[in-house]
Amino acid sequence: MAHVEEVVAGAVVVPDVTRSCRGGALYGLPMFRRSAPAASATADPVTTCALAAAAGDRAALDEFVRTTRDDVRRFLSHLAGPADADDLLQDTYLRAVRSLPRFTGEGPARAWLLAIARRVAADAVRTAVRRPRTTAVDDWDTVAARGVRVSAADEAVLVSSLVAGLEPDRRDAFVLTQVLGMGYAEAAQVCGCPVGTIRSRVARAREDLVAALEPGGARASG
């Protein structure tokens, strides 16, 4: 199937979803429904855009992508690595466009989209060949033991590497709530678990990171 969107210069370009082609399909995708469920009075703007996009509103689809792509890319970068983030971003929006006709707005669209991104990243990790990290977590031990000051950029790389080394469920909960700023309830929808489980995973992730950042600390792990 031809790609229906591509990542170009940091932007996701999607096809005109208001056009149909022979056989009732759009670039091999199911037809978008002709009318969208009415958005509730409390629906957030992203969810409202998603519902309109599901009905074939091209402008709404463009806005949905524009307002969500940065969070999706950041999430994927932490889950699967920055090198693969753009390719996985494209795959995420391809799956989302396919699924939009079934989106009913019962939950926030951002949580729905990030749940798709989480599955995309999980699929990629399962099938990818293991690659060595560009920055070893053990380097932090050497720097800390010597008492050497590191630049903010270097420290950010080290912390990012530690986050990537967290047990996957803890990492996902931590990135969603502490990096992307999602509420615990919304993060629970993304991960498909109770709110209390998200709170526990975030707390344990913090403990892992604090321990790993101590001189001689253990590598962040499950």
From TrEMBL:
Residue ranges constituting the RNA polymerase sigma factor 70 region 4 type domain according to the UniProt record: 159-209
Alphabetical list of PANTHER family matching this protein: ECF RNA POLYMERASE SIGMA FACTOR SIGC, RNA POLYMERASE ECF-TYPE SIGMA FACTO
Chain segments annotated as transmembrane: none
Gene3D superfamilies noted in UniProt: 1.10.1740.10, Winged helix-like DNA-binding domain superfamily/Winged helix DNA-binding domain (1.10.10.10)
Name used for this protein in its record: RNA polymerase sigma factor
Family matches, as NCBIfam families: sigma70-ECF
Keyword terms: Sigma factor, Transcription, Transcription regulation
Family indicated by similarity: Belongs to the sigma-70 factor family. ECF subfamily.
Organism: Pseudonocardia sulfidoxydans NBRC 16205
